[in-house]
TrEMBL record:
Domain of life of the native organism: Eukaryota
InterPro entries: Acyl_CoA_acyltransferase
Protein name: Dopamine N-acetyltransferase
Organism in which the protein naturally occurs: Orchesella dallaii
């Protein structure tokens, strides 16, 4: 688990929000927040379409990472509501999602996208690293968007991870907002998949319909040396 000294780097008040570590008592609320906000509104999830199995699958994956102690929430101080969530995990040489019992086709497609774009990035061979902190999910409630929470999560998390001794941070970005946030903070592009070229499991059929896509529908792996 991270040290108390490292937690001091990220925990504290900012504007109307309180940033703090995710405690075991928060797990259920954090998973519900991700299911009802990230799975509904994140660019790729939105294209795939929300359903209960999809939400449950993503919540299950999140539950695997929470005990590592690298994830944080931002509480709205006046109401006590969870305004935002930052899910982070320690990617190790043996990290894999292969054994996770996913039920939804949507979650399997999302995992396929993540696996493919990270394989394209090939940071292990290109940069000689086999472990890093991976920003998995950033989720904000609709009532608290466009208030700078995502950027503040990045700034605090980067300082926290540096204090914990991580040398690299990696994130798969799928929206123009997260792209801008990562570029501003010194992340560098490693790979890119345009959604019009992303194929289904048969490696022939496009996953997404062209008429549903815009020029903003693509994903990139971004890497930062801490």
């Amino acid at each position: 688990m991270p040290s108390e000294e490292s937690y001091k780097v990220i925990e504290g008040d900012w504007k109307d929000f309180r940033f703090r570590r995710v405690l075991p008592a928060d797990y259920e609320a954090v998973q519900e927040h991700v299911a009802q906000n990230f799975v509904r509104d994140e660019n790729t999830c939105k294209l795939l379409g929300w359903n209960e199995d999809f939400a449950a699958d993503v919540s299950l994956v999140v539950s695997l990472f929470l005990p590592e102690g690298l994830s944080f929430i931002a509480e709205h101080i006046p109401t006590g509501k969870i305004a935002g969530v930052r899910i982070t995990f320690h990617h190790k040489p043996d990290s894999s999602f292969d054994g996770v019992p996913l039920k939804s086709r949507n979650s399997k497609i999302l995992l396929k996208l993540v696996n493919e774009i990270e394989e394209m990035a090939d940071v292990v061979n290109k940069h000689g690293i086999d472990t890093w902190a991976e920003f998995f999910i950033a989720s904000t409630s609709p009532d608290f968007r466009n208030q700078g929470l995502a950027g503040e999560f990045y700034d605090r998390s980067i300082n926290f991870l540096t204090a914990e001794g991580f040398k690299h941070a990696l994130v798969v970005v799928t929206s123009p907002y997260t792209r801008k946030a990562t570029i501003k903070r010194g992340f560098e592009q490693q790979s890119r998949i345009d959604y019009e070229n992303f194929l289904d499991f048969d490696e022939k059929t496009p996953v997404f319909k062209k008429e549903d896509l815009t020029s903003e529908h693509y994903a990139m792996v971004m890497l930062k040396t801490l």
